[in-house]
Amino acid sequence: METKSSYKERLQQSPEEKDQKALDYQVKRAEQQLAADILETESAVDDAEQALEEAKSAVPFNTQAIINAQVALETAKDGLKRAKALKAELFGK
Predict the structure, then answer these.
(1) What pLDDT shows up at residue 43?
(2) 43: DSSP letter
């Protein structure tokens, strides 16, 4: 939460205080970026699941298309797992 500071108070802030605010901002932005990446990866998992279902229902039957869709789904799920693990490791959530 932002506190109200006068111009004079802002000028009197120590370099350490300014550095701390900048650091807090960077951490917040990184956490937001990771959250956005997780949402995007969840969407990719959904898309890959749909693509796999479509490949399994395709006419003519195409084994390689099914295998490719399975690999894409596994890759998306692995990416999601890794992103969530990063969130827990780096941000404790």
Answers:
(1) 98
(2) H
